[in-house]
Amino acid sequence: MDALNLPPFDYKVTKSGSNYLIFDILRRKNVVLTPEEWVRQHFVHYLIHTLGYPKSLISIERGTRYNKLQKRTDLCVYNQEGQPHLLLECKAVHVPITQDVIKQVSTYNQTLRARYVVISNGLQHYCWQVNFETRTYEPLPEVPGYNFE
Length: 149
Description:
The chain is α+β, with helices and mostly antiparallel strands. It has one domain: tt1808, chain A (Alpha-Beta Complex). The protein contains 2 helices and 9 strands. The strands form 2 sheets. It has a 6-stranded mixed sheet with strand order 4-5-6-7-8-9, sandwiched between helices. Strands 1-2-3 form a 3-stranded antiparallel sheet, covered by helices on one side.
């Protein structure tokens, strides 16, 4: 797997048939190790071990509906009231962060209404704070740590 621009962590990879699996600490099971999953697992560990988010507030591949279509978010962090706080869209290293990717996560967030939106391909990370009243996205220099107001 590719080296990423995220802190390394102690991961467990096993092989099952032709697939490599990585242990997911949130789902508590091995999942197929795809390039996108590699980025997601790094970001999960970054949120927990570097930024201090509790595991209990993080959800992976949560289903949501948008315009009668069923969609899945890569990762959603909730606040203590159970409301979406941070929405993360992961892409594989070779996938560039384009306007289409930004539009995808913004579309998901119209339904979820998370305060922060993050997009990462493991090398580039973009974070915005969302103001729903003014319908604006303010770029942030880094992903905010766990300190709910």
